[in-house]
Design brief:
Length: about 120
């Protein structure tokens, strides 16, 4: 089963780590407890829209950007699940999947590329 809260947590954690910030820094800026933010990042708690807004503000990331990244990951996870069911993945899609786990729990940390980046599409 694909859980949106896990995908959202993974994206939030990556955003924070890209900025080289700690959970403590972001939780303080977002005015949310460190423990709760940690649970959100680990996909153990659902984040309300108010909480997401506060976290996005703390990370200086637009919520639309965050949700777009989550949407891209969700699409890839669904594709991986579908491909596993049919055991056929189109060749152009294979690089995008990397080691995506059909169970939604990767065996190791995985970076999923944006669809356009994975197939070397350049925006005009």
């Amino acid at each position: 089963m694909i859980l949106l809260r896990r995908l959202l947590g993974d994206v939030l954690r990556r955003q924070r780590q890209r900025q080289g910030r700690t959970l403590r820094e972001v939780s303080s800026s977002a005015r949310v407890s460190l423990g709760y933010l940690s649970e959100v990042e680990r996909g153990q708690k659902e984040a309300s829209s108010e909480l997401l807004s506060a976290i996005c503000d703390a990370l200086d990331v637009r919520m639309s950007e965050l949700m777009r990244e989550v949407s891209d990951e969700l699409a890839l996870a669904e594709l991986a699940r579908s491909a596993a069911a049919t055991e056929s993945v189109p060749a152009p899609v294979r690089p995008m999947l990397g080691s995506v786990s059909v169970t939604g729990v990767p065996p190791e940390r995985v970076t999923i590329k944006a669809p356009a980046e994975a197939v070397d599409v350049v925006a005009a």
